[in-house]
Amino acid sequence: MQHSLRLMFAAMAAVALMHFNGVAAAQNAVKQIKLTDKQIEGFISAQKDMSAVAEKMQSNADKPDPKVQAELESIAKKHGFASFEEYDDVAANISMVMAGIDPQSKVFTEPKVAIQKEIEEVKNDKSIPEKEKKQMLDELGEALKSAQPVANPENIELVKKYYEKIDAVLQ
């Protein structure tokens, strides 16, 4: 459950970043790309800097600040990306695969199936307060609507290769 909550937070931060860039939530379809080792390593090294900017943005998400946008571009380039857009595509593809990997067995399940399983777990978890459970189920329902199958199966093995490092930076 903690793994899912971390991934949900990462997904919400990515959505906040996309919202900041003027991308409508309805256009939340992931631009699937074939990942490389270099991109994943850049993503991992950029997380500390990107997380700090994402926290600033969450407090002021309604008004995109050009200075913050410039900071995002600078961080992306510092970590080997051509632009923030490339970083964002890489982050979305990594998140898509990470969401489908079971933390114990490291077995991958397609996103729709994984989200449906998580919905059932949340529904059956008696320890979650009803208000929180409803919010989680609403968010999972939205995630289910936009879930896509992984178009580049080689991304699964590549993300598994870096799973521990990715998981550590998303905590």
Strand segment tally: 0
Q: What is the SS-derived class? A: mainly alpha
How many strands, which pairing sense, and closed or not: the largest β-sheet?
A: none
Low-confidence stretches: 5-27
Net shape: globular
Strand portion, in percent?
Answer: under 5%
SSE order and pairing:
Layout: H1 2-20, H2 37-59, H3 66-78, H4 84-99, H5 111-124, H6 130-146, H7 154-161, H8 163-169
Helix pairs in contact: 1-2, 1-4, 2-3, 2-4, 3-4, 4-7, 5-6
Task: Describe what is shown at a glance.
The chain has 8 helices and no strands. It is mostly helical.
Give a description of the structure.
- The structure is a single chain.
- The chain has 171 residues and is an all-alpha fold.
- It has eight helices and no strands.
- The longest helix has 23 residues.
Keywords:
171 residues, 68% helix, mainly alpha, single chain
